[in-house]
Structure formats: C-alpha cells, structure tokens
Batch of 2 targets.
Target 1
Amino acid sequence: MTRPRFRRIRWILRNILPGLAITLVLLLVLGGVAEAVLRNSVPFRSVSFKETAIKGGGALRFEPGSTVRYTDMVSYWVDERVNSLGFLDREPPAHKPPGTCRIVIVGDSLVMAAQVPNASKVQARLEAYLSAARGGRPVQVSGLGTFGIGQVNALGYLETVIRPLTPDLVVMMAADNDFSNNSAVLSALRYGWHPEHQWRVGYRRDPVTGKLTQVGPDDNSGSYYLFFPPPPPEPAPRRVRAHRWAAERSYLYDRLFRLTTRSYPRLYDWMFPQVMTDAEVKVRRMEQIRALPGYQDVFAGWKYPDDLFEDHVFHTEPLPPVFAEAEWLTRHAFERFRDEGAAQGFRVLVAADTTLSLLSNDIQEQMRRSGDGDALTVDGALTRPVVVMGRTLMPRGAFIRLKRIAEGLDLPVIDLYEGLSSMGRLAEARIPYDGHWSTVGHDRIAKILSSHIAAHPELCDGMAAAPARSVP
Amino acid sequence: MTWWAAVWQRKRFWLMPLIVFALLIAALIAISGGDVLKPFKYDRL
C-alpha cells in the first residue's frame, strides 16, 4: 500500500508541483509589476470638484478658479482648472480685436466635457479649424457647458454670461435628454426637486390658459425635495466589505473589478444591490407630484414604469401632455435665445447631437428581444417605425422633433449624426461605456461646425455689421 | 537522478504556467472588451 502512494506523491512532485510553483511565482511577479505600473501612472483615484450657485446664473456652476478632477479609473484622468466664469474651459480672451468671430457654445455635459482636456474640446479645436478656414482671421470660442441642463435651464446665462461676452454666434448643442431637462415636472421626477421649486431656471405652462409661471431658480429648493432613496444599510454585507478593503489597497484589483463590471454589470448589481431601482424611486416621486394641488392628472397618458423612460418618449409620436409641455418649453427657450440674439447682436445655430437620432442600448436590447432587431442599424438608428411598450418610436424621432422646432423659428440646424457618420465609425466619437464625446469626437464635431460656419460667413461676419448689434 | 533532473527531463513544468497564463490573458481580454491591452490614455489625439 505504501509503494503506490509513494509513487503517486513522486509523480505529483515531478509533474504538478514545479509547474504550480512557477505559475504562482510568475503571477506574483507580474501582479506586483502591474500594481507598481498602475500606482505610478494613475494620477488620482476619484472625481472631485466644487460646485457653486452663481447668483442670477440659474444653474450650478463650478467654483471659478477651482480644479476639477474627472476619471472613470479606466480610460481617462483629466485634471483641469475652472475659468473665471465657472465653466470647464480656457479663460475667455478679454479683448476682441476687430474682425474677430466670437462664438459661444451652450450645452450640457457634452460641452462641459470633463472627460477630455480643455485643449481637446470642441471649443478649442473649432477655434483652430475656423481660424484657418477664415484665412487666419481670429476666432474665439468659449464653451458654457453644465451637466444635466437643457435650453430652458441655460436661459439664465443670457444676461449673466453671454451678454458680457458679446458673441457673434451662439451654438446651442442639443441632446435627446434636453427635452426632459427643459420640463420642470420631468426634472422633478429625475432629480427629486419640487416641480415649483427648481434649482435651475424652470417654467411651467398652464395647459388651458397657456400662462407661463417661472418655478426656478429657487434658493430654497433644498427645503422642498421630493423622495430620495435611503442609503444602503450598514454594516454592509461581508463581500462588500472585502471588496472595499481590496479596492482601497490594490490599484490592480480596483482596475480589474472596474473592467469586469463594465462588461458584466450584473456583477456590479450583485456586489452593490440597490435599495430601490430608479424606476421605484420615480414611482414614489410621481405619487408625491400627483398629490400636489393641480397636479393630479399631470402624468396622464404616460403609464411609467409600464411605459418608456422619459427621454425615449421624445422619439415617439404623439406625446402625452407633460411631454408636449416639455416640447413647448424647449421651443420657448430656443425662441428666447433667438430673440435675445437679435437684441444683443448674435446669431443662433442649433447643433443636434447623435443621441437625438439613435436609441439607447437598453431600448435596442428590448427591441432585439421582441424580434424587432432588424429595424436597427449597427449604430442604433431605426430604419422604420417600431412599437415598443405601446408607443411608436419613429426613425430619428427626437432629431425630427428638434429640427421642426428650430426650423419653425428660422434657426439653422447642423445634423451631427449625418456629419459624424461620414467621418468614420460613430462609436469612435464616444468614450466607451461613458457616452460622452471622445477627443476624436470633439475633433470631428469641431471640423463639422467649422466647415458649416465657414460656408455661411454671415454667421460670423453678417451680424457684426447689422444694426441689431447696438444693445438697447 | 535528482528531483530537478527528473523534472527537467520530462519538460512538463512549463505546461501549467502556459495554460494558466493563456486562460488569464483570454479572461482579461474578455472582461475588458479589449481595453486592458490599450495604453492608458488611449483616448487622446
């Protein structure tokens, strides 16, 4: 009995143990090297910024002169200084020499672009491209980007930021989530603010009388918050504590965990189970909003959560009343920009982001599951109308909606979907798993804007001589 | 014959690290969608 056992041990010693030992040593050495490389190359490990409410500005901005650090801990680490206006861009030039084309780009997180350095943003690249296209004549471009805002929320910038900058052209960068952000009710739903006490510039429109009521910015917005989900219970489960312990100590573990959960979001949900889903939070807020005087039927025609997510509804026809109000307010904001432009002496150009023409991944997934995958292009655009959850999604639905609004106001629209589609794969223009524009995207969009503006010189030069330039 | 001479003669000691590292690299590519092979600031012009 001892002999076969001895032979087996000797076999293991000769065949298994050396390989095992070499594997373990190599893993330890390579793991150590990877850990050292990561520790040396990762400049910082968390997002940090200071926000401030600038009086009269109507939206939160960054503290002027502060530093914003932005990272997804996988593909970008950006450390930039906030300019004196409170935006994440280069300092706007103090002087405007004669013949200068001064452009302001207004938009949400796409224009804020905390994921790329200031020098790579569309505003900086446009300056270079357009100046070259204008034979070296100076071009100055400033980005007024604030995350989560729509055109209504940006109305506060007209007097406080745009007038002092005396631009010749204001480019309004529009994305599909702007429609919801322009609505006080839908903002209440997604951000938890009271529909009549908004943090930012906001309006409500009476559906019967058409009367417009301003509902923000309200400095006391914080006293009227709607429902917020409770924090996860402490102490956290053992797996969460083990994860925190490892992630704090090892850059390698942290990176591998992030890479894995990006590809397998279910692992993230297992590690950090939500106390409530976003849909459950919204349902609670809907109940609170309906209980307010005059709001009983505000969500009529929209059966969320057994209905489309609010941003997706703008890709459909027809719109339920609260969405029609959002559309009306969006038009109102564009009109105010146009009219203020006539008074201040700037023209308005609308740039439509690709999100207005494409469907998000989750709704694409839903369509594939229900057998409508053939109606989708590789980029996620629809080739024919498709009914999802009882609503008809239209091909390029939100873009057509925006275009109709802009053209009704005589505002030119640049279609970034069409422009970017002709310049390579659309996915290259976005940061993977982030959705914001990559440096490639910023560069391509700057080229699109530059060629449009160069081909329509009146956008820069025409207004400079127009009598409307004298501010009343 | 010493233990190491026997091990060396069989040339099997490299099999396990080879298999383990091949699996590891495949797993890393799979979980990261290829990102793990890209340099850090690949999203720069």
Target 2
Amino acid sequence: MPILFQTAEVSGIPYTADYLFGGLAVIAVIMLVFIGSLYLRFQNVRKDIALAEQLAEE
Amino acid sequence: MTAVKSMSLSTADPAAAAPARPRLLTILTIVTPIALVISLYVALFVARTEVDQGDVQRLFYIHLPAFFGGFFAFTATVVGGIAYLRTRNAKWDRLAVAGVEVGLALSLINLLTGMFWARPIWNTWWTWDPRLTAEAIMVLTYFAYLMLRAGIDNADTRRRFAAIYGVLAFTTVIITLVITRIRPDTIHPVVVGPSVQTEAQGMFDIQATEGVRLALYTGFIPWAVLIPVTLMWYRVRLEALAERAALLKSRLLER
C-alpha cells in the first residue's frame, strides 16, 4: 500500500500532500472552466441558429 | 487521418442542419472520464510514495502526460493549418482552432502542476529556467493566436492567417520539448530518456519506486490521447455550428 498523505513524523517521508491537493484542484478548475465554456458556447450558438431560422421563416 | 476525417463535419452547405453526434464521440464521452478516474486511482493509491519528495511527486503522473496531450493538440493545429493552406477547406481550420484551445488547456495544466510541484521541491513557485521560460513563451504564443484570430472579421483572411500562425507557433512547442536535452544548465529534471543536464534538481528514479511506470502509462491514456481527442472533436463541432449561425445571420441581413 502507498504511504499516501502520511506525516513526516510517521514515515520519514516529507509531507507535501497539500501541494498535491493544490495541483489537483487547479486541474479540476481548468477542466471545468474549459468544458463549461464549451457547453455555454454550444447553448448560445444553438439559440442563435434557432432565432435565425425562426426569423428566416417569418 | 481517419480520425480527422470523422471529426470533420459536412462542408457541403454550412447552413444545413448539424449532424447528430457520432457514435464514436458518444463512446469517447463515456470512456474518457472512466479512464481519467482509473488513472487518478492508480496515481494516488497504487503507486508508492517517492521517498525524497513525498506525495507531491504524484502530480508527475498528470504533469508529463498533459504536456504530451498539448503536444498532440498543437500537432493537430499544424496538420489543420497545412491542410487548410493546401485545400482552403474550412473543416481544416476548425481542427486547427480546436487544437489550439485544447492544447492551451492541457499546457496550462502542465505548467501549473509543475509550479505546485516546484514550490516544495525547488522552494519557489517559479524560476526563469530555460524549460519554464520556453513553456511560458509557448503558452503566450498560443494565447496570442486566439486573440489575433478573434480580431479578424473576414473569414478567409482569418483562416489563412491562423493557418500560417499555427504552423509557425509550433516551433515554440519543439523548443520546449527539446530544451532539457540540449541545455545542460536547466534545473528541470529529465526523468525519462537521456539527458545532458548537470544542474537538475528534483530528479527521481522511475525504477526505484514501485508503481511509477504503471501510474505514468495509465496517465498517458486519458491525458495524452482520450481528453485531447474528445475535447477537440467537440470543439470542431462547435466551430461548425458557429459557422452555420454566422451564415444564417448573413443570409438574413442580405434579404
């Protein structure tokens, strides 16, 4: 088993898990912002197309 | 080439109704998060802790594959750019812009995870090391691509400019990739393959810690292959829809 998140006092390995969590949080933020932005842009473009088609019919 | 072909949307009439989501894209949308969760599990709970660096070293299992994911996406931009210049077919421009956006997201992940690793290992968030500087220039170059592209109204001019810029910008990717192999004074570690470095700090032996290779290989599947392909595919579809919306609007204005 790994010694994940164990303190330096217990294992002698430096405790750097806080930086790991920070890095994982940044990854999550970047991915969520990118996917969220894609989703919002899809929604906006679909609305634009629907409106343009409606106006074209009128 | 087959993947690129299937990623592209119809070019016959951009104003025609958008095609339904391809089955392969649906499969990728399901498989990618599963592969991501498996790779995170292996990185966090299967690979043993590196004894000199502690848990922060686990970021390496995302840091390195994310760079190659970005490399893959920027390569798609080069392919799209060259193909657009040869054929003037808009589908290649869609691939090019998709590659830049996805490559930027993955490069930012690579850059920022590197900073979080560097803080406890190098005792600083940032240093103007050749590798770090090269990557910062690379990221700024591709941000500039998006800004300059957004500033050109004429579609043909925008596509032609973006194609040439996308091909030339790839030199920053090559420099970032090889700089640790040709500059001996960089402190950025080279963990895989030969190196000329004399001042690297934070090196670790991937053979010495159990599970490192497995975690690295498991990380490459989502970060370097599945995530770039899936996100680029969606971005290509978005660009096709945006072109359709623009065409419908211009037809309305002409009436």
